[in-house]
Specification:
heterodimer; A: 199 residues; mainly alpha; 7 helices; flat; B: 258 residues; alpha/beta; Rossmann fold; six-stranded parallel beta sheet; 11 helices; globular
Chain lengths: 199, 258
Amino acid sequence: MTSDIGIWVAAICTLAMFSFLWKENSIFRSFQHIYVGIAAGYGMVRQWQAINNMAITPLLTKGVTTWIVPIILGVLLFARFFKSIAYLSRWSVAFLIGIGGALSIKILETEFIRQAQATFVPMNSFNNIVLVLGTVAGLCYFYFTIKPSTALLGVAKLGRYVLMISFGAGFGNAVMGRVSLLISRMQFLFGQWIYLIKM
Amino acid sequence: MITAGKQFVFMFFAFMIVVLLYRMDRAKKGNLPWIRRIAGLQAIDEAVGRATELGTPVFYVPGRTEINTSGAAQTMAGLEILGHVAGLTAKYDTELITAIAAPNVQPVAEEIVRQAYVAAGKAEALKPEMVQFLSNEQFAFAAACLAIMNREHPGAAIMVGEFQAETMMLVEAAAQTGAITICGTSRAIQIPFFVAAADYTLIGEEMFAGGAYLTRDPNKLGSIAALDVGKVLGTLIILIGAITMTAGNKSFLNFIKK
């Protein structure tokens, strides 16, 4: 067994979290709250470091005045805590939503045009035929305002099956990923903590 | 003038703006488009009703993404549905718990819930705990959501927005407490978890149609109809591209790449 205090703490935290597999209990709950609390503290420090390193330090030491605008917009977010000037925080929120909206438009290229382009394949093999017809059928499932004819209903139904098959494959893939996470945690407990297996 | 490789994208984008404005204008003039039934959205009223009957809260998560990222569209779709859910909880005097992971989503969610309660004439029922910021750390947020669900036993858990690896933890915890679960995301890699564990799943585009479907707002219905035009065009582009490639002609592919 290791004498490293850090590994002991990590092992106890791991076991406390795994205790949920038995049932929801007070040990699990205590460690859950500790985890959330630590994450809140860590998040706050990280945010402060980001603001300090990215904006305040360049402004004060290098005189990069362009940072005044985001700093003011950031400070305005706190105006919501004062009723008389609460409306000022909406400017910052509107600015953020504007950025989000603009960034979302990029999806048109990456997730629509480029994906459509990826289906431009010669239909001379089973794989390619499945790729093209599966994509078209999947797309037909997401027609919301077009009154479906019998043919469109059939294609949309096929699209639904295509989606479910791909979700099944995705689910299996993700489960494999989760199992590997479990294996690495077991290796930590039995290898680094109690030396039951050789690492 | 337009960067090489972006010309087709720009043309498509410009065309979609024209279609969007036209369909919205048509809808505002009373030509509302027909919209097909979406089971997951239909079930929201039933889920809130169930929570009301049981005297338990409705637990809502509008995703985990900030509003100033490329995932903002999903968060906004989640917030739009939150407005509808808050309207229902206000109407039925049901408790609402909204869990927030992104700091800049907090004021927007608070405002949406406040407006829904004011619109329902229940401003006095508003409580600060209705919108709770938990943590912007992924698994700390998930752990906090689990704690709330285990403690409060919500009758309905509705999670619509962008989610990542925490999906299974959230939806499993909700299912274990016996809540009706309605989940939605357009992250293809996370949808399978919702499909496997939730009672109803809004798959991708279905959640973007949520606002229009639930509110029947002409502007939103018009925008959904415009998106359908885009999807039909996308279908045609795929078919023409595949057929021309089968014939050994790359001119259409080169046109798209422009």
